[in-house]
Amino acid sequence: xxxxxxxxxxxxxxxxxxxxxxxxxxxxxxxxxxxxxxxxxxxxxxxxxxxxxxxxxxxxxxxxxxxxxxxxxxxxxxxxxxxxxxxxxxxxxxxxxxxxxxxxxxxxxxxxxxxxxxxxxxxxxxxxxxxxxxxxxxxxxxxxxxxxxxxxxxxxxxxxxxxxxxxxxxxxxxxxxxxxxxxxxxxxxxxxxxxxxxxxxxxxxxxxxxxxxxxxxxxxxxxxxxxxxxxxxxxxxxxxxxxxxxxxxxxxxxxxxxxxxxxxxxxxxxxxxxxxxxxxxxxxxxxxxxxxxxxxxxxxxxxxxxxxxxxxxxxxxxxxxxxxxxxxxxxxxxxxxxxxxxxxxxxxxxxxxxxxxxxxxxxxxxxxxxxxxxxxxxxxxxxxxxxxxxxxxxxxxxxxxxxxxxxxxxxxxxxxxxxxxxxxxxxxxxxxxxxxxxxxxxxxxxxxxxxxxxxxxxxxxxxxxxxxxxxxxxxxxxxxxxxxxxxxxxxxxxxxxxxxxxxxxxxxxxxxxxxxxxxxxxxxxxxxxxxxxxxxxxxxxxxxxxxxxxxxxxxxx
Length: 557
Ligand SMILES: *[C@@H]1O[C@H](CO)[C@@H](O)[C@H](O)[C@H]1NC(C)=O
Ligand SMILES: [Fe+2]
Fold this sequence. Notes:
With 557 residues, the chain is of the alpha+beta class. It has 19 helices and 12 strands. Strand 8 and strand 9 form a beta hairpin. Bound molecules: 2-acetamido-2-deoxy-beta-D-glucopyranose (NAG) and fe (ii) ion. Fe (ii) ion (FE2) binds next to helix 5 and helix 15. Its main location: cytoplasm.
């Protein structure tokens, strides 16, 4: 709703700092909620003052809104302005407490999965471009708890394991966050969840990534399964990994590292940064619906009668353990894609589209954030001196990361470049990273054997015992399968009022520089979309999750 007053103000107004809006109750009529988009005031001197509002007014109180020019607490020197800044944050702290692709495409994708789920190459592919592309790391030395020996392995014509490790062709996935976790009980039956170690080899010929050894749970007595084992020994071993992959992905990579982190960033922003601040204007579009969807997730997914508790092996008490383990392993560097890729040593793995698209997006977002923040902060001292900004990062460090120094999360911003990097990470996490780990859930999980939410039999402790029947009895029952598919379907669906990354329907910035930077940001995203579309044409399985046109600005699903 755009409000205007046709009469120009009769007197000179000077420079407008703020306006007050109040909804007056009319006799006998109920007070209806009022959504105000913006207010514009024309002055006698032909200046137009713009006030971005984008707020519901549901009471008879007076609400104050600032003129659109973004100002940090240091720049904002008008006494009235300073006062309203404080009042706004005081109110927000009362309200927000810190304590602790399109459907048709989805369906065609599950068909591909149904056809290929048994294949080693597809199993390997999902570590690079499936819903959890974050787990795989280069292995230059075998972990001491994984007693694989050279003579066990088939290395696709390569000479030796040592040589392949040196060349960077051996990779490891270690589900250590699931180790020792007690699996759920479903319909009075004990369920099974393992913490496997998976060794993979990048084949010299076709540049495929294939599993070469799997151990269900680290330990001397547990057999190490190999592709040369019987068909069902090997398929079952992979199935246990796929189920661990599902649970690790949903709780750690999806829930914790996108949804819950986005919530921490959002609540800390609302409590510490007023609407007139440039950081608020920059970040608030990337928090849309996040608190609402997380409230729903708490009610429907992880509550006592939620999906996770009723239908997954990680539900119940185990879930808390997994989240604690995951939080204690979480590092700032793993949230910053360029650092993460280097740390995992996966810079040169072929066909790693998550990495390629992700790094490009990181660069685009970084250029945008850098441009905007450098317009408002001229040097490091100005960053140091901004108490609102510093309170934001302090809340994130203390409340979100429990003051754990080992995470490497900044406790304070000493420089502009540190602030730019952190803010880039926030936008990347809320948009790109969430899209990468959220949008493919039904594509990969819609064919249940590829992503069983739980397993009903323990992993075999001896080889040559598994048959097709063992596999069928291990997979979840029909009720669990149907509930799993329904939830994954809903969680992968694009919402009806989707806003793509870089689209800002609410005009919060009015200065020329940030407005120009937004246009440039959008043009870079458009170029990337064209490039991704072109690249995907030549792929057997297109990688769609980091196409800028397909991803939301915020964690909203
Ligand atoms: C930072 O910029 C402000 C405003 O331009 C200036 O007053 C201040 O001296 C600068 N500080 C340093 C350390 O360069
Ligand atoms: Fe999600």
